[in-house]
Fold this protein.
Amino acid sequence: MKYVVLVSHGMFAPGLHSALDMLAGESREDILSVSLENGMSSEVYAENLRKRLEAVTEEDEILLLGDLVGGSPLTTATNIIAERGLLKNTVVIGGMSLPLALSAVLSKDSMGLRELADMLIPESREELKEFQVVIEDSEDEI
């Protein structure tokens, strides 16, 4: 199986997971999320992540999405994945967003993991843009 694993500070990963449930289908076993909550020790976060990754085997692949490159959630997740010998089947991307995660979930089964990552990053950059609203003047006369 190809997993999309979401990790973050605060409740971003579980919130993003919830949005993905709405958009890509609920109760998907291929989406996992873990968050480093305010006041939580890194040991508790690491143990929560280990438990969440129990179903992942050496035959599986992981697309690991984190909120910040170099942040504790992403670096800890990468270390735990390495401990389990799963890093060779893992691609790690920092700076996750809803468009990125949704594209990952919807496209992951139609391409290889490296091809998926190569598609996601430029596509995600294109999704970041200003939404402009045009306000037309009313020409109603009194």
